[in-house]
Amino acid sequence: MDMSCVPHLSVFERQILATSENKEMFLEKFEEMMPAAPDAAGEQAVMTPEGGTRTTYFEIGPGSQRNKLINGKLGKIRDSHEYETSVTYKGVKIPIKVPVAVMPETVGDLITTFSTPHSQNPQPFPLHPHLTTNGPYTHPVIVLVNALLTQKRIVFLGHGRPSGEVANHVLAACYLASGGVLKGFTRHAFPYTDISKIEELLYVNGFIAGVINPMFANQARWWDVLCDIDTGRIRISPELKPPPLTDGLSFFNLNPNMGVADYVKHDTMDNAFMEDISHCISSRFGEWAVRARWRDWVLRFTRMATAFEEAVYGASALWIGHEENHVIKGHGYVWADEALKTRDLTANAARIEGWRGTRSYLTLVQESAQLYQAKPIKIVDLHHQIDRLRVLRLSHEDSEKIYMVLKHYVDDYEEINQLLCVIPETQNGIFPIAFGLFHPNQKVRFAVVELLEKISTHMAGRHFFNNMNRFQRLAYIRLKQERENSGGFSPVATEAANGVGSFSTTTTPTTAAGVPRFAAFGPNGRGGP
């Protein structure tokens, strides 16, 4: 199988591609890797009376993915999320589509696997802090996700069903808890096993296994959670012991109104989330929409876990940075108010404590350190600042600081990629940035125009830019014309040159050697230690 023309994507490019439904995202990467098609029979160009050639389009292949001849070159209408190649078997070429942006644990088809909800004929679960985060009537799929996150022993039982169908359930379950963010599930997944291997299986902590022998249903000591494919129900083993008391649980028990002992009274919003997922499936939104929502849910959970560790233990291994060096303070998940933050952390405390120390947690800690080194912008938490624009009702001064930081620190290709990763299409895309076009301060409006100009010329950013609504487009065109009529001078640059403003040479952050940020960025990115 020839994979020589698969484009090489950075970690940010893969994330952008995986969270976008646009079929032309990074299409230029394919064109760069695609060799020039040689002249061959069937490739024709129509001669004009002047002796030149004119463009000809004709279909030379069947199906929806058709080849076309364009100016004598063979091209394909393709989805940039997939690489099309073939394997020759007994003289027959078999077409194969290879996913380009495969995120961690992205396996299984969520739509076909979980279109029939496990919550048919619901029955109450026995309470367990790690699993029933919304009380006895926690959604069964959430119980399964909690079991995966907290590394419980999970068995999928499909008596009399094909082994391939059982294996598909195991693989799809891996994506449920992964969401394209976490790792460590497929390595300890056994898509199909039998009773002869039970001794070896029980040595594995937190396995995910598929079986067809009904004897497993009667041996509750072999599993913690049993998913019966035939009935669509999930069972919690009566032999599963409650977790020990931890510092995190004790910390929130100090609040008499919101103790962990009565955690079932606090809504984790999981049931509302599952209603949204069910609506997506019933409305045939497509697998991409469901996967995107799962990714947002898992990412939200990991960011809440970071805030939980900082509140309980004073620091978190999931966040690496030096906020004292940031040009604008703040990092991590953003809540509308402290009461909502306390409610969410209390409701998720048991689940977070159960996740800490698992394989997926430890892997995420390692990858967080690697991702920090890959970030070109370390001097500001872009995700946090964008969330502030989305969630909070900021004053004009606070929003001005954010827009000015974005304008000055998001400049080259990888820096724009880092920004695009925190404004996915599922979260209104570029809208929080474009909203700055209506800021009362002209300096801020012009700064947003300059930032949008950079995004519009970016390989992936142009697709985000094109998704702006008509109202934002008109404001952008008007402000751009207004800036040109004023002589092309940016009030931001003018203030900086005159030694005033937030980003003048007298207030610009400097490196450890005292060099202004605009003069030397260093090998570790802007503002990196």
UniProtKB/TrEMBL annotation:
The lineage of its organism: Eukaryota, Fungi, Dikarya, Ascomycota, Pezizomycotina. It comes from the Eukaryota. It comes from Arthrobotrys oligospora (strain ATCC 24927 / CBS 115.81 / DSM 1491) (Nematode-trapping fungus). GO terms for cellular component: plasma membrane. This is UDENN domain-containing protein. Coiled coil: none annotated. InterPro entries: Actin_polarity_regulatory. GO terms for biological process: actin cortical patch localization. PANTHER family: ARF3-INTERACTING PROTEIN 1 (PTHR28245).
